[in-house]
Amino acid sequence: MINNLDKTKGDYASKIRQNIFFSLTLLIFSIFIVRLGYLQLIKGGKYRSVTETQSLKQEVVEPFRGNIYDRDNNLLVHGEPSYTVRITPNEFKEANLPLLAYCLDMDTTTLIKILQKNKRYSQFDQIKIARDVESNKIALIEELSDILQGVDISIETKRLYEFNGNMSHILGYTREISIPQLERYSYYKMGDVIGQTGIEYTYENFLKGTKGVRWVAVDRLGRKSDFNSGKSDIPVNNGFDLRLSIDKDLQEKAEEIMIGKRGAIVALDPSNGEVLCLVSKPDYDLRVFAGNTKSNFYGELESDKDKPLFNRALQAAYPPGSTWKMLVAIAGLNEGLINENSTIHCPGSFTYGNRSYGCHGAHGSVNVTKAIQVSCNVFFYNLALKIGLEKLGKYGKMFGFGELSKIDLPAEGKGIMPTIEWLDRRFGKGKYPKGSIVNYGIGQGEISVTPLQMAIYTAAIANRGVIYQPHIVRAVRRDLTENWKNIDYDVKRLNINSKVFEIVIKGMYDVVNTPGGTATNAMLPNISICGKTGTAQNPHGNDHSWFVCFAPMDNPKIAMCVLVENAGFGATIAAPIARELVNSYLNKPQKQIKDKNIEQVQDSVKISIIQITKSNE
Question: Can the peptide bond before residue 515 be classed as cis, meaning omega within 30 degrees of 0?
């Protein structure tokens, strides 16, 4: 057995086997030598070039935000190219921070804070460190590009505004995305600009467009070239344009009239719910938010005692005062509690329980149209008691009080329509003051309304019971090559006898056009204005001045609410403002349409408010 093992060992160590092993080793080594020589000597130039240029970089191409036009296609808002400086953290050397700060005329500490704030998201995503940078600073950064590796220049847009005044509570502003917003919307990156208020917020998904991606090859010297001839790039899509219902001239005039006042003006087209103008004063200049905004500006606005960020047209709620009397009249007439000939005697006051409620004078025997004309409190005290809380609440809700109108602007307020259920929740079941209904007859007490709600209510009367959803945006288009596409909005028809409206409208006509009316100073010689004054009691100061109106009487083109805080009588302050604006709008010269596509609107597209508002998750 030992001999057999020795023999086997001798066979494996034979000379032939050694030669075969040596030959195979030599062959393999030779193949490697030949391959290395081929790569170095023959293909070396090609691969050297590839090596020098195969650092691929992804650059984001920012879309142009959509333009905004008024109802006559006057350009209101558009974009201007501006330079933005970005840093890619994994490519940038922090030792170069002082140099970059010098180029941008920034504090090094500020740059460090921006980098630290953004680094937690990604080392490979570009960070925007400065926007709307001057061209001389950009030129300096480009000259030092060999040193400032990881620093890139991109083109973005900043908003430009082509109108007098502010329109701040219509348009809203754009601002760098906040961290809570960044966590909510996956589309955005740190440093992106996003609509914060107004239609810039509501229509963000339309206006923003979609980012593109450009792939570039970067050599060892930092020089860039297109990768794959641009075939791998993702094209950018600019934002949609919006055409508003706003009349630029009317808006500018309304803002000018309200300078130095506190309050709101809302004007609607009664035939479709389009907002013709919307003013809230005090306001702020949107232009400050365009481009490179100083860091503390928003904080200054928030702390301003005049509350310029607060949209009084949509959010502020006031007692409606005597402008509420048409609603009480409609409820009484439609319920058959009175007719156009019913009269109530006004001795100058009304007693209920142990309290006396005053009137503006002793009007004697008055019917409903006369009561509206002279604003007789006693008539509406009595009528409200006949109607009762339940039915008054029913009609208030019917006209949208205590509800959202669903206008395409954010942060709308509901106001308060004190139904029995609401009073029970506030005071305890059945414990609410029994005299509340008397105050409700003249729009006082717990009732509170927004100026927008009052404009809608007035338009509904003008329409003889049709309520259109109020809206700012009429139509959208993808770009200049496409036609405008209308947006559809809701419409509601009230179950109220049409004769009721005719009776109430006659009273509103007499308010302005008949001697003894409370707003004869709002009369125009060639336009039949129907209106109603209101002076709302204010426990915190002087009374608020109201005036609501529509015109013309038989074919209404405009319905308006004017509210001036702490200004006293509606007839003295608010009514003359409305008169001037109605005259300006209805007697203006015909405008030429600037875009022939403006009337060539394609089939309407149904875009719901849910779709319009943010859905970027």
Answer: no
Quick one: which of 164, 154, 439 has its CA closest to 286?
164
Euclidean distance between the first and final Cα of the chain, in Å? 81
On the CB side of 98, how many CA atoms lie within 13 Å of its CA?
1
Query: Residue 97: left (phi > 0), alpha (psi -120 to 50), or beta?
Result: alpha
Q: Is the peptide bond before 81 cis (omega within 30 degrees of 0)?
A: no
Q: Is-contact 200 408, C-beta < 8 A?
A: no
Q: Report the Cα 610 to chain-centroid distance in Å.
A: 14
On the 0-12 / 13-18 / 19+ scale of CB atoms within 10 A, 502 is exposed
Q: Does pLDDT of 39 surpass 70?
A: no
Quick one: pLDDT at residue 596? Answer: 42
Task: Report the pLDDT value the prediction gives residue 220, as an integer from 0 to 100.
Answer: 63
CB 72 within 8 A of CB 591: yes
**Cβ-based neighbours of 195, under 8 Å, separated by 6 or more:** 172, 173, 174, 201, 202, 203, 204, 207, 208
Spatial separation of the C-alpha atoms in residues 195 and 209, rounded to whole Å? 12
Mean of all residue pLDDT scores within the chain: 86
> Is 199:167 a contact under the CB 8 Å cutoff?
no
**What distance in Å separates the CA atoms of residue 243 and residue 226, rounded to the nearest whole number?**
38
pLDDT computed for residue 153 by the predictor:
87
Least confident residue range of 31-35, 357-361, 455-459, 519-523: 31-35
Contact 345, 374 (CB under 8 A): no
Please report, to the nearest 10 degrees, the dihedral formed by the alpha carbons of residues 390, 396, 402, 406 taken in order. Answer: 140
Dihedral, CA of residue 513, residue 517, residue 519 and residue 523, to nearest 10 = 10
> Are the beta carbons of 474 and 243 closer than 8 angstroms?
yes
| 502, 507, 511, 515 alpha-carbon torsion, rounded to 10° | 120
Q: Is 77 helix (H, G, I), strand (E, B) or coil?
A: strand
Please report the pLDDT score of residue 37 as a whole number: 66
Per DSSP, 562 falls in state E
Least confident of 76-80, 82-86, 583-587: 82-86
The residues spanned by each domain of the chain are 57-89+113-118+127-244
Higher-confidence position of 600 and 363: 363
Per-residue pLDDT, averaged over 157-176, amounts to 93
Residue 299 carries which side chain, given as an amino acid letter? G
| Structural contact between residues 379 and 346, judged by C-beta atoms closer than 8 angstroms | yes
Residue range 57-89+113-118+127-244, CATH number: 3.90.1310.10
Nearby residues of 302 by Cβ (< 8 Å), 6 or more positions away = 309
Q: CB-side exposure of 279: number of CA atoms within 13 Å?
A: 33
